[in-house]
UniProtKB/TrEMBL annotation:
GO terms for molecular function: transaminase activity. Pathway: Amino-acid biosynthesis; L-arginine biosynthesis; N(2)-acetyl-L-ornithine from L-glutamate: step 4/4. May also have succinyldiaminopimelate aminotransferase activity, thus carrying out the corresponding step in lysine biosynthesis. N(2)-acetyl-L-ornithine binds at R143, S282. This is Acetylornithine aminotransferase. Pfam families: Aminotran_3. It catalyses: N(2)-acetyl-L-ornithine + 2-oxoglutarate = N-acetyl-L-glutamate 5-semialdehyde + L-glutamate. Binds 1 pyridoxal phosphate per subunit. The modification N6-(pyridoxal phosphate)lysine is found at K254. The lineage of its organism: Bacteria, Pseudomonadati, Pseudomonadota, Gammaproteobacteria, Alteromonadales. Keywords: Amino-acid biosynthesis, Aminotransferase, Arginine biosynthesis, Cytoplasm, Pyridoxal phosphate, Transferase. It comes from Alishewanella maricola. Its cofactor is pyridoxal 5'-phosphate.
Length: 405
């Protein structure tokens, strides 16, 4: 018999690999857009588990899907298929440009599959010279070695030995910088329609359209990483639908499972055929529990009420942030779309986003940062107006505290 374990924040430092620096509090319960910690203190959640808890905490539709599936069948692996995976794939295909779906467990894995697929597609259709992937500065595509190397922050990929090659970075929203790099050696351009981790920077419509044209001119594939922007977050099921630009491959995760780990890569039949039997795989990909929850998430989110609600919530967020800014003058602008917003700190407060994040937690509000200059909000898509206004009251107190110094 072991003695009962005292679960405190100090235990983290004792037993966990030190690659994270979590806050002092430990949440134990969540309901909708509210969370409670070990001490029973209540928080409004504008972080949403970093754009994951798309329907808030413990949404009844997701709880029901999980419980129902948990009593039927948990896992098979891919030597057998299963009903939830096939239903979810059919719904994703019906709702998007895609004709084929590959399931995995995370955003990085969805991108890893996409990047391997573009290389294989190029090898099958052209020759070994066509391997180059163009990506963008400040982009983020996950933490596996391939995805971190495609990502635009060298500090995430340096220091692990030789990197995967044939990856170049252009400047986001600068089409000329892409024209300078693209050639017949390019097999794909990889882009987030709104850069998330990089600072909530929306792609210009003309830029994204231009990428589509350049890909068509050079026989390259256009990959949209919608891991953060997908599943209703911008008021459309996927952000590409806001732009009228259709990618060849789309990756999705985060909001897809509403808190249950699941990811997917969507593409066309013609491209998908290059991942033949045996070329790629995942033990858990398409797991029945994950797919049952994601199916319930898609059913709930892909409705006019929820998608229109996201844009209504955006308007309330912007109104509240404008009021706070009129009083305290801390933001230069508010960027982003729907329930993916970034309040950009002005010159005076540049580099201090973490102070706002910590002050917010002190006042009972979970926010996020996106780099050092942006306070990010990625709450539940179905957060109520009352919860937004209460959260903003707390955020106003936090901002006042930072301003007071
Ligand atoms: C979070 C994120 C990823 C990585 O997803 P994981 O589930 O953490 O692997 C990839 N791309 C974008 C745009 C993201 O925001």
């Amino acid at each position: 018999m072991t003695a009962e374990i005292q679960v405190t924040r100090a235990l983290f430092d004792d037993v966990m690999v030190p690659n994270y620096a979590p806050a002092k509090l430990i949440p134990v319960k969540g309901q909708g857009a509210r969370v409670w910690d070990q001490e029973g203190r209540e928080y409004i959640d504008f972080a949403g588990g970093i754009a994951v808890s798309s329907l808030g905490h413990c949404h009844p539709a997701l709880v029901n899907a999980l419980k129902t599936q948990a009593e039927k069948l948990w896992h098979l692996s891919n030597v057998l298929t299963n009903e939830p995976a096939l239903r979810l794939a059919k719904k994703l295909v019906d709702a998007t440009f895609a004709e084929k779906v590959y399931f995995c467990n995370s955003g990085a894995e969805a991108n890893e599959a996409a990047f391997k697929l573009v290389r294989r597609w190029a090898l099958d259709n052209f020759d070994e010279s066509k391997q180059e992937i163009i990506s963008f500065g400040k982009s983020f595509h996950g933490r596996t070695f391939f995805t971190v190397t495609v990502g635009g922050q060298a500090s995430y990929s340096d220091g692990f030995g030789p990197k995967p090659g044939a990856i170049v970075h252009a400047e986001f929203n600068n089409l000329d910088s892409v024209k300078a790099l693209i050639s017949d050696k390019t097999c794909a351009i990889v882009v987030e329609p709104i850069q998330g981790e990089g600072g909530i920077i929306p792609g210009d419509a003309a830029f994204l359209k231009g990428l589509r044209e350049l890909c068509d001119q050079h026989n390259a594939l256009l990959v949209f990483d919608e891991v953060q922007t997908g599943v209703g977050r911008t008021g459309q099921l996927y952000a590409y639908m806001n732009y009228g630009v259709t990618p060849d491959i789309l990756t999705t995760a985060k909001s897809l499972g509403g808190g249950f780990p699941v990811g997917a890569m969507l593409t066309t039949t013609a491209i998908a055929q290059h991942l033949k039997v045996g070329t790629h795989g995942s033990t858990y990909g398409g797991n029945p529990l994950a797919c049952a929850v994601a199916e319930a998430a898609i059913d709930t989110i892909n409705t006019p009420e929820v998608l229109e609600g996201v844009l209504k919530n955006e308007a309330i967020f912007r109104e509240c942030l404008a009021t706070i800014n009129a009083e305290h003058k801390v933001f230069a602008e508010v960027r982003g779309k729907g329930m993916l917003l970034g309040a950009v700190l002005n010159e005076q407060y540049k580099g201090r986003s973490r102070e706002f994040f910590l002050a917010a937690a002190d006042h009972g509000l979970f926010a996020l940062v996106a780099g050092t200059d942006v306070v990010r909000f990625a709450p539940s898509l179905v957060i109520t107006e009352a919860e937004i206004r209460e959260g903003m009251k707390r955020f106003a107190s936090a901002v006042a505290q930072v301003v007071k110094g």
